Amino acid sequence: MKYKELAEFYEAASSTPKRLEKTEILVKFLKKIASSGKELDRDVLYLLLGDIYPEYDERRIGISTQIAIKAISKATGINETNVLHEWKVLGDLGKVAKALTAKRKQSTLHTGVLTTEKVLENLRKLPELIGKGTVGKKLDLITELLSSASPVEALYLIRTLIGDLRIGLKESTVRDAMAKAFFSENKEAPKKIQDIIDKSNDLASVFNIVKDGKIDEFEKIHLEIGKPIKAMLAQKAKNIKEAFESVGKPAAIEYKYDGFRLIIHKKGDKVIFFTRRLENVTKQFPEVVSYVQKYVKGDSFILDSEAVGFNKKTKEYMPFQDISQRIRRKYHIEKLQEELPVEINVFDILYYNGKSLLKEPFEKRTALIKKIVKNNPYKIIHAKQIITSDEVAAERFYKQALKDRQEGIMFKNLQARYQPGSRVGHMLKVKPEERDLDLVITGGEYGTGKRGGWLSSFILSCKAGKLKDEFLEIGKFGTGIKEKSTEESKIGISFHELTEKLRPYFLEEKGKSVKIKPKIVVSVTYQEIQKSINYNSGFALRFPRFTALRPDKHPTEAATLDEVKKDFENQKRNWRYG
Ligand code: ATP
Asked: Which domains does the chain carry?
């Protein structure tokens, strides 16, 4: 397909803020790809959301704004200082590429026709170029594309490269458009399409099946060992009574461990771990590979678990924030593994010896765990569980979980199936009411004096809605961050470290203020939520305090405006009734 057609689609989609209109525009585009009949065109589905591979694939374009600036300069013959100047004026590198390409076009005659295949071919070479001395090669690949691009094509090429497409399209819009384009009469279609998206995390494969309009064919998408699946998520219940009402009696009740989700795949000798963000973190947990090999029976399986940190000496469990760096760190793994050991608590199984268990009732899945996982405390164990109809027993179990320093308890319906990617009503969490939120950093301000050079305050945003791609500001924080680098103490994060973490996502700098792409999720506690006209969410957090980075969470999993409103209402209710 000509890249021009894709660029025209991007233009049309970004011309309207309305989701329904965007969906309609996408419906037409998807029908066009389907009717082209070309196998290669299906990969355009990745480009639609600014990717080059399926979501489960770890290879990302990963080009810094600095390289993008160099490439614009090289392709247009305008020196870097002038490109930088244009960036300051226009605030968007894509627009800079468009404007400067237009200038170049007037002076040179260029007749290159860019295709999506060529764009993908060059972009896919970028992640393979690692290490010193590769910048030149990267530049060549990008410049080649930019040199044959029209101004509009250059705009979207640059935005794709820096990972900021700005067309307001997300996976759920693609899902709805697929349903409309190929199953116009079937109300069940969006849900069924979502199911196979969550199972495969590969929009192009999903498109390939969906485009023929046959729902029975969906069964063709199977779980595959080594390919990550989205984890099933829980809803919240107010208390034990409400939890029983939702999941029925008897229910399985388990500890809600305060760790991080680890989905374990094994086939033969090969063991792979994924986080809930579908990141492969196998290298970070060599000791867990050996626990899985030694203590779990079976040739092939996918287990769902929570990894919890514990103190080596006292054997007391530690909160998530104290071990979160085990997910992040890629170096000195042995040392970290010594200092911050984890215990794996297995609570579900999705696949066993060649067979998917997604449709099997939880009762059966949990029984299988007990058969195949050999309990080895402080290494790998079955999640603590009781099966009961008794509220008093549940209350006792809840108290014990909190005493053991865990977050609370999970209620699970014994007959329910495993639904990847869904926040289901048959798995409910009960935990003490506390005021904390997971939010995204979308801006910051440079500090002065000893904090000069680093951001010293950070703007927090929530998601505008469950299905909305937009983020709304809700407060600023600077507390909870350390002055000095944390190499010695290992725990927490410094201003310097957080700034460096955010820097690749800087979108715009004006004076001391920086706009940042919503990428980094953090947990914050706060004293109170107030209504406010200072932030576009309409709310402000009072005294937000950083507690942890959430590398395991995707920005789309940040708290939504509705959740903020709910917490606001709840806090009012709590005050009223003491
Ligand atoms: P929270 O911020 O309250 O931890 P969350 O958004 O991280 O919630 P939820 O879906 O609300 O995630 O809660 C489920 C999470 O709890 C799972 O992702 C998993 O990491 C963790 N968890 C701990 N113990 C269990 C368990 N026994 N069964 C299922 N999930 C568990």
From this structure: 3-161 (1.10.3260.10), 233-430 (3.30.470.30), 436-577 (2.40.50.140)
Any residues with CB less than 8 A from the CB of 339 and at least 6 apart, and which? Answer: 312, 490
Backbone phi and psi for residue 19, each to the nearest 5 degrees, phi listed first: -60, -40
Structure tokens at 315: 């054997």
Cα separation, 78 vs 103, in Å, equals 10
Ligand 1 site residues (CB inside 6 A) read 231, 233-234, 254-257, 261, 276, 306, 347, 383, 410, 429
Compute the radius of gyration of the chain from its Cα atoms: 25
The answer, yes or no, to whether residue 449 has pLDDT greater than 90, is no
Question: What pLDDT does residue 549 have?
Answer: 92
Q: How do residues 297-318 score in pLDDT, each as one tens digit?
A: 999 999 999 999 999 999 989 8
Distance of alpha carbon 565 from alpha carbon 437, whole angstroms: 12
- The verdict on whether 370 is a catalytic residue reads no
Element of type H or E holding 152? helix 151-161
What contacts 117, CB < 8 A, 6 or more positions away?
Answer: 1, 40, 43
Position 106 scores a pLDDT of 58
Tokens describing residue 145: 């594309």
- At 535, the pLDDT band (50, 70, 90 cuts) reads very high
Among 227, 256, 266, 379, the active-site one is: 256
Which ligand 1 atom sits closest to the C-alpha of 553?
7
pLDDT at 310: 94
Burial class (CB in 10 A: 0-12, 13-18, 19+), 10: buried
* 468: region left, alpha or beta (phi > 0 left; psi from -120 to 50 alpha): beta
| CA 550 to centroid of ligand 1, rounded, Å | 13
| Alpha-carbon gap, residue 497 to 236, rounded angstroms | 33
Q: For 459-517, how does the pLDDT look when each residue is reduced to its tens digit (9 = 90+)?
A: 999 999 887 778 999 999 998 898 876 554 556 788 999 999 999 899 888 888 999 99
Q: How far is CA 464 from CA 163, 377, 475, 517, 536, in A?
A: 21, 42, 14, 15, 10
- Going by the DSSP 8-state scheme, the letter that residue 534 receives in this structure is S
Q: Whole-angstrom Cα distance, residue 517 to residue 165?
A: 11
H-helix or E-strand containing 71?
helix 65-76
pLDDT value at residue 150 = 94
